[in-house]
Write a structure and sequence with these properties.
Chain lengths: ~375, ~160, ~140
């Protein structure tokens, strides 16, 4: 009699996807996934232990290397966490510039997510288009911080350098061009029958499961839960801006994909408002050179990163180095749901699920 | 019969090229490295940017990123090699056919970078490989990667 | 204090096993190790359905396991801490209450060596499976 046997296939950790060292060990019956296990740790760089041997300002460059696709957002979270511990006041101009940089990072991350969803499904051209647009954001980062990718632009107490005059025409023309860029992605990718067939109905997460598994960010909002930390618990000056939280209903890969395009629109509105209201003034608050929070003080500060809820839990022992620093990484927790949503689907669907959950292995493994 | 340099130039003007097989093969290899798509960190993002439209690695002939190590000849170690990744990258390197080269991209691949004193990062790719070219930077710009690859081209052609 | 009623109810139920403090942002409930699971079940019933963060700290004479819990989308928040002893670091899992505790507890086990009783798959997650130390402990020094 003919009998079938289940076969175990290793997807990764070296594989032609943009997500880096992710290893999924999947058991297949034919082409259907019976079960899968996620193995992490291929990019574990011992960041939390290194934090205990660095002073608070010395740790700022490490934060950009956590989520390197949206590198200003972890820096924002870390600086705000330490500022909460020491009670620092941030000047208005610095707050507005932080918002502009954070939202530019978010747009850069979402553009890359959209491009990598396209390339993971086989449409290589999608990545080229989004990378071309992302390069304009890289130029703006280079103008302000000197670095394209790993910026480390923010500091505890403010930001490191003021915006140069050539920044404003660049960012204004970028914001004006965003509707054109989004129209191009819609023409190329959203209207594409193959993308729709590959993504619709694939990897469905229910709202209840999402909350139980701790899923956050666009992945949570795609299931219908309208929860965005910028609105729920505003940090910095986010309560002054007028923006919507796009949500979708089905929680499948298609919704996660479309939601990222919609979020680019919302971020560009926030940047527009911030540019209009940008005041003159100082860029760095009054912060001591050597930062020593009170002994026993601890803080858990979270922001809405491009991937979800990014939190820093810092415990101080009165010295100039953190006693314990823990990064609550959204990608680490979002990936937990991958085996559950891939059960019963096909091999190509697990690739679509990974791409639309949009993990960044740098912050996943820290 | 040994040809002097002048003789080869005169022949070349008359559309006759005289060379060795080795030089011919090295010319082919150097002008078309097939990098392996490997990397897990910030440096591969700049590698991807190098492959995208603005920097365009294709103008050098190196855009053919192969997914399978059996078809690649250049291992660009982009990013740190962690404890768990070490057996993987050693196996991938062993699966690549000869001749093959290794380019260490970024400070993490050269020396462990900012994570050097961590417990889980190897102090450089040259602890396990013979690295041909080192491209410093954190991360290096795409132009830096191009410079590294062009240096490797010179090495392969014996011009260094 | 938005959590006042809930905290009063919990204090009535857990008496001396529960201590309440505040770190400037979260109400912190420090509970005795044995009652942790019961407290978390109570909190889940009160609508705290989203475990945002689970981690632990090595204080050299004890470990503290910290939970930051939110309610989504109503937006309330609370923190829970429990102290476990250094010699035999073990505490009950909360994976049956919040499924997100799965990998977070594995990470705490991997890096700090704290065992979570009842976890279905307590193995290392970030370090190689045959690695032998727990690096985030204070007695593990970087070179």
């Amino acid at each position: 009699m003919l009998q079938t046997e289940n076969i175990t296939v290793n997807i990764g950790p070296q594989h032609p996807s943009t997500h880096g060292g992710l290893h999924v060990e999947a058991i297949f019956n034919g082409e259907i996934i019976v079960d899968s296990t996620v193995h992490l740790g291929y990019v574990h760089r011992s960041v939390e232990k290194i934090a205990e041997t660095r002073t608070y300002p010395q740790f700022v460059p490490y934060t950009s290397r956590l989520d390197y696709l949206a590198s200003q957002l972890p820096t924002l979270a870390y600086c705000q966490a330490v500022e909460k511990m020491i009670g620092a006041e941030i000047p208005e101009r610095a707050e507005y510039i932080r918002v502009i940089m954070a939202e530019l990072s978010r747009i850069a991350s979402h553009m890359l997510a959209i491009g990598s969803i396209a390339i993971d499904l086989g449409a290589t051209t999608g990545l080229i288009y989004t990378f071309r647009d992302r390069e304009r954001i890289m130029d703006m980062f280079e103008m302000t911080s000197g670095q394209r990718l790993i910026t480390s632009y923010m500091r505890i107490g403010g930001i490191s350098d003021d915006l140069p005059p050539e920044f404003f025409p660049a960012v204004n023309s970028f914001i004006e061009d965003i509707p054109k860029m989004i129209k191009e992605y819609e023409d190329l990718l959203v209207g594409n029958e193959i993308m729709q067939a590959r993504l619709k109905g694939v990897g469905v997460i229910s709202a209840e499961d999402a909350i139980n598994y701790g899923v956050s960010g666009p992945n949570l909002r795609a299931t219908g839960v309208a929860y965005d930390i910028r609105k729920a618990e505003p940090y910095g000056i986010y309560d002054r801006f007028d923006f919507d939280i796009p949500t979708r209903k089905n929680g499948d890969s298609w919704d996660r994909f479309i939601l990222r395009i919609e979020e680019i629109k919302e971020s560009s509105e926030i940047i527009d408002q911030a540019l209009k209201d940008l005041p003159q003034g100082e860029i760095m608050g009054k912060v001591r050179r050597v930062i020593r929070p009170e002994a026993g003080k601890e803080v858990y500060h979270r922001i809405e990163s491009a991937k979800g809820e990014l939190g820093f839990y810092i415990v101080s022992d009165g010295s100039d180095k953190p006693y314990r620093l823990h990064v609550r990484a959204p990608s680490f927790i979002n990936l937990m749901i991958l085996p559950q949503i891939s059960k019963g689907e096909k091999l190509q669907d697990i690739i679509a699920n990974i791409a639309t959950l949009d993990p960044v292995l740098g912050e996943c493994d820290r | 019969m040994v040809l002097e340099k002048d003789d080869t130039e005169i022949l070349a003007k008359n559309n006759i090229i005289v060379t060795t097989l080795e030089k011919l093969f090295n010319w082919g290899r150097a002008h078309s490295f097939w990098p392996l798509s490997y990397g897990c960190n910030c440096c591969p993002m700049e590698m991807m940017a190098a492959g995208a439209a603005r920097f365009d690695i294709a103008r050098y002939g190196y855009e053919v990123f192969r997914a399978s190590p059996r078809q690649a000849d250049l291992l660009v170690v982009a990013g740190p090699i962690t404890l768990k990744m070490r057996p993987v990258v050693e196996r991938v390197y062993a699966q690549m056919p000869e001749p093959k080269w290794v380019l260490a991209m970024g400070n993490c691949a050269i020396s462990g970078g900012p994570f050097k004193d961590g417990y889980s990062v190897l102090p450089g790719a040259d602890t396990i490989f013979d690295v041909d070219v080192y491209v410093p930077g954190c991360p290096p710009r795409p132009e830096g990667l191009f410079h590294g690859m062009l240096e490797l081209k010179k090495q392969v052609q014996g011009k260094v | 204090m938005p959590n006042k009623k809930i905290i009063e109810g919990l204090q009535a139920e857990f008496n001396d096993a529960l201590e309440v403090s505040n770190d400037g942002s979260y109400d912190i409930l420090t509970i005795e190790k044995g009652q942790l699971h019961a407290l978390c079940e109570n909190l889940k019933k009160d609508g705290f359905n989203y475990l945002a963060n689970l981690t632990a700290v090595d204080y050299e004479d004890r470990f503290e396991v910290v939970y930051h819990i939110h309610s989504v989308p109503e937006n309330r928040k609370i923190a829970v801490k429990t102290i476990i002893d250094y010699g035999n670091p073990e505490v009950s899992t909360v994976i049956d209450i919040w499924r997100t505790a799965d990998w977070q507890e594995r990470e705490v086990y991997d890096l700090l060596g704290i065992k979570f009783a009842g976890h279905p798959n307590l193995i290392r997650i970030l370090l190689p499976y045959d690695y032998e130390a727990h690096p985030l402990r204070k007695d593990f020094k970087l070179k």
